[in-house]
Predict the 3D structure of the following.
Amino acid sequence: MEKAVKAIILAAGKGTRLQTEGVDAPKVMRLAAGEPLLRHVLRALDFLPREDILLVLGYKKEQVVAAFPDYAWCEQSEQLGTGHAAGCGMKALGDYEGDVLVGAGDMPLLTRDTYRGLLEEHRRAGNACTILTGTADIPSKGYGRVLRNENGEFVSIVEEKDCTPRQREIRELNSAVYIFDAAALRRALGLLKNENAQGEYYLTDTPAILMELGEKVGVCCRHLGKEILGVNTPQQLSEVEEALLRR
């Protein structure tokens, strides 16, 4: 019998760099191709029942709840990083024991096929964590790099700001989308530390923590092209809207 799967979608951000005159909406409510960014994400996840998708909300959460009343949600009252946001979601899921897809509400170009491919690889490999990575037809600036050993096995994710010049040349990028075994994710989140310049808890640290605990961590690497684009700036918003309109 297949394990159950639920999704936690991180959607708490304000999107400070997206704020323009007269627009003060949460980031995931900014429009692209006439619909909120979050609508595109949820449409790609429509192979999951709505009741199995949890939104982690923060800034002006009332706007998101009003627009998506059929989805469960929880609040991230402080912006303490993606690991903290995922922890808020896991707390809301209680003692759930299946698989958990953790994604971002500001990545409207990821397709149903990509999400399903990640889930299939996770189950095929029997991993505690599977990371969606990919090559892309966009500048790699801002993306974490995926480090592998001489056997091609996953080692860790390095945030770009921490990369050596040689590591910056790596073309395999972290998409910030994962599937975890729920129990393994709880263990890793409990060991997260915020010893970084931002004082935040990074979800990107959890795969390495799980490996240290002896858990199996794998990678689902695809050519993602522009699918990997998240929206943080007006330029990126225009770029994803152009791509959506082309589909």
Residues 92 and 148 are 34 Å apart (CA to CA). The longest strand covers residues 173-181. The chain has a mean pLDDT of 92.
